Amino acid sequence: MLRLLVPIDGSDRSKQSIDWIKERYTPSEVSVTLLLVREDWDDIRCKEQCALAKEEALPILQESAHTLSDFSVATEVRFGRAGEEILRFAEETEIDIIVMTKSTKSGWIQMIGSVTNHVVKYAKCVVVIVPEMQTK
């Protein structure tokens, strides 16, 4: 069974990675971890604030997990710089594939975001970049 990691930030764009997984895999082929990284860790001073910050992230993760209801899904909240935490988590849990959605820029400049760029550059596993689908 492949272990997939999907960084989620609550945006519709980040949720497109979930749709990509559902189109390509069956629940028996993969287990999915949804990871939300809070970069406001400098503001957290005690265990209570940490617990509250994790609790605030749960609805975002639960909504995304619900769309994968037939799949084996775990959720995780981490604190720190998003790119570094995604890579750290992937290595610690022996993730096979990180699935992220790139931001589609219009015009002549097209680039992926800084977090995605960091993950692609330093990942020790396969990274799939899903093109952002324009919503109407």
TrEMBL record:
It holds the Pfam family Usp. Residues 3-131 form the UspA domain. It comes from the Bacteria. InterPro entries: Rossmann-like_a/b/a_fold, Universal_stress_UspA, UspA. Belongs to the universal stress protein A family. This is Universal stress protein.
